[in-house]
Amino acid sequence: MRRDVWWVVFILCSGIGLNASLVPSQAIAADEKVKYTLGPDSQRKPNVPKGTVTKARWKSEILEGTTREYSVYVPAQYKSGQPTALMVFQDGHTYADENGQFRVPVVLDNLIHQGDLPPIIAIFINPGHKGGSLPESPWKANNRSVEYDTLSDQYARFLIHEILPEVGKTYALTDDPDQRAICGISSGGICAFTVAWEKPDSFRKVMSHIGSFTNIRGGHDYEARIRKTPPKPLRVFLQDGSNDVNNEHGNWWLANLQMESALKYKKYDVKFIGGEGEHNGEHGGAILPDSLRWLWRTKDVDPFEQGASTSGGKTSEAKATTGKKPAPKKKAGSR
Q1: What is the pTM of this model?
Q2: Which CATH number among 3.40.50.1820, 3.40.1280.10, 3.40.50.720, 1.20.1050.10 corresponds to the domain 3-314?
Q3: What is the tens place of the pLDDT at every residue in 62-73?
């Protein structure tokens, strides 16, 4: 695809500018993409109990004037009245899609059944939209950047004081912050970190895919804040690709490396998995099973170093890199 044509497609899809967060893109020439494949733990397996997913809609008071859809996954192993671990996914539609890049309900079914994870209730929450009906694509929700890219406690308060109590009316959610995780992709990735950073007494596990730790709304400040702030009791998983976006807001790959470096400097429990992917969920989805194993581990065992992973990988190369920059692929254009 010609560079000028690709750039037009990207602007239309993601709306570069202060009022629009960056969204994952698939508008790259097929022959120039690094391809990652899903492993067996991202596929339906016979005799594995299947959890349920129910959908709902919410009008917020804290995020005034916004409406959004969300869905709740409950594992087959859930026991009524027993406080259960929790994981919240921003841009929930992309994580809940069983035919998408992440397929979280399928992965959770498999890993919980295998005993690799405790029973976990997952909340897949979409970004908010102001005015009129919800857009056909949740990526186009007009309050996404305000909610996800802003460095404040507002979105965390929305989750803690609105969404969790609402879900808690039906299901028993743990109040143990060590058993609560939060995840997101792109601007949803920095949002997940912000929630835990602002409210470590509510969330202490963070997973970020191609996180936007760049200057969309000041996110590039995090690496300095981390270095100058006493450590918080967080466990952080970061994923990015060396061919991620490089535009006026910043360089996503370098920003994620800076996050890793700052977190390591302050002796956080942090894991960075780098690949050669671009601004999409292919790499993050391929390694999701082992990423979840690492985030929820109870022993000092790193699934990425075990050599028996059932996560996916590149079609031409089995393993992702950790904290070391691979050789960039030639791209159709920078984003």
Answers
A1: 0.87
A2: 3.40.50.1820
A3: 999 999 999 999
